[in-house]
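Re: that chain you flagged

S.,

Sorry for the slow reply, it's been a week of failed gels. I finally had a moment to sit down with the sequence you sent. For the record, here it is as I used it:
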Amino acid sequence: MTVTANSVITAQSVQTAQATCTAAKTTYADATNAVLLLTAGPNGGVLYGMTARPKGTTGGAGRVDVFASLNGTTLAFINSANFASYTQSTTAAPVASDLGYTETAPRRLAPSEQIWVGTSIAATNGIVVDAQYENL
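Prediction finished late last night. Pasting the structure tokens below so you have them in one place:
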């Protein structure tokens, strides 16, 4: 959508994005072992929610890290949340880790900004990250 100066830009539609992290990310400035979660639209966007949860046995507790990038190569560390060790079971569901974005405290996204995620531990089944956002 073409935008003219001094015009109001409203959200276009609610969208969701999911990414599964399986490899341990041990660096903070590059995309090595990070997974692209979403790319904001040409007018930017608003990130309203993000959670992470194990898809199976993790083998230990860990951390989900969130990164922002304007070029897909250089990443900036912007957020993290810890998750508990989880053993897959028929009676215990994995606990979601909330990364803190809400409708009252969202993260504004620059035009075409990318959000990447990574985990501090290798998890064979993966840690799934789920996001709710809108493009402007």
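What I noticed first: The two ends are 9 Å apart (CA to CA).

Talk soon,
D.
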